[in-house]
Amino acid sequence: MKKYYLLILLGICFISCKNQNPLPDMQLGALTDYDIEAFDTSPRYFKDYQTYYLEGTANLSSREAVRELTRHHDRIYSLADGRLYVHHHKTGKRLHIFDSVPTSFRSFDIDTIRQRIYALDHKQIVCYDTIGNRLSTFSLKNHSKNERLAVIGNGGHLLLTTMTYPQPEIYHIDYENRKQIPLRSPNKKTEIYTDTLDAPLSIIGHSKRGTYYKYINNDTLFLVTPQGLIPMYDCHMKKASKSDFKMRLLSLDETDEYWIPRYRTSVVVKGKHYRCTEAGFITKSFQPIEIPYNFGHINPEKRGATCWIGKYPFFMSKDCRDILQINSTELDSIYFLPEELQTRKASNNLILNVLNLKDKKK
Question: What does pTM read for this prediction?
Answer without folding.
Answer: 0.84
